[in-house]
Amino acid sequence: MAEYTVISMKWGDKYGAEYVNRLYNMCARNITLPFKFVCFTDNSAGLDPNIEARPLPKMDLPPDRERGWRKLSCFRDDIGLSGRVLFLDLDTVIVANIDQYFLIEGDFYVIEHWRPSKKHGVGETGVYRFEAGKNRDLYDYFMANMEKVKAEYRHEQAYVTDVLSKAGVLRFWPKKWMPSFKYNCMRPFPLCYFADPILPPDAKMVVFHGNPTPDQALAGKSIGLKGFFRHVRTPQWLRDNWK
């Protein structure tokens, strides 16, 4: 029987246990396939008992800015994963059934970056799917050539998507499934003060990256120095799904 696993990672204090629990709840409501939910974390306190909490895979990283490099440890073949694995960032909001994220054929799927560039790369690893143990070389090469990789790539997602693109195995989720809250949902100024962010009709997940976070959007805030022009009203669809 096919094995399906959703994984997430939580370390440090940026996100609390409530983010993991909400992500699990959204998966439970929107996946009809048999699956398990694993969270690799340095602190399992407060996690729902249905979540399989595991220690973060050991990874000797220097104490500089993280930039997602720890996510590469998910490609190791000695961390107890098997079958098809769907990685979800903790700030992902699921709004429809996501069975197809497991069933669609292909070795590796990732979000196509909404504004691809040399700086950011072509893919966004907030949501990606892979076959367990198949991409160990991404982890091994980085660990053996850490400074070289960091000099060439701004962050983990640029490295992963560039290497796999050159290998010819990189595929992108259908764009209509994966709108960005920032680019595809938020209203432009001044409409943002009078109308809620939209939910595109074919969306399956809404991707939050940078600001606003789901918490900020739920609170209805103006964000950052340019906040006056980026005000966020709280949409009902976010209240209904992010819980």
**Helicity level, as a percent range?**
25-40%
Number of helices: 8
Name given to the CATH architecture of the largest domain: Alpha-Beta Complex
What is the CATH superfamily label of the largest domain?
Spore Coat Polysaccharide Biosynthesis Protein SpsA, Chain A
User: Looking across the biggest beta sheet, what order are the strands in?
Assistant: 3-2-1-4-7-6-8
Q: Could you give a short account of the major beta sheet?
A: 7 strands, mixed
Which structural category fits the helices and strands? alpha/beta
Give a count of the beta strands, DSSP E runs of length 2 or more. Answer: 9
- Strand fraction band? 15-25%
Describe it for me?
With 243 residues, this protein is α/β, with parallel strands linked by helices. The chain has 2 domains: 4-176, Alpha-Beta Complex (Spore Coat Polysaccharide Biosynthesis Protein SpsA, Chain A), CATH 3.90.550.10; 179-241, no CATH class. 26% of the residues lie in helices and 21% in strands. The protein is built from 8 helices and 9 strands. It has helices spanning 17-30, 100-103, 136-144, 146-152, 156-166, 181-185, 214-219, 236-241; strands at residues 4-10, 36-41, 52-55, 84-88, 92-94, 108-117, 121-131, 170-172, 205-207. The strands form 2 sheets. Strands 3-2-1-4-7-6-8 form a 7-stranded mixed beta sheet, sandwiched between helices. A hairpin with a 3-residue loop joins strand 6 and strand 7. Helix 3 crosses helix 4. It starts with a strand and ends with a helix. The mean pLDDT is 91.
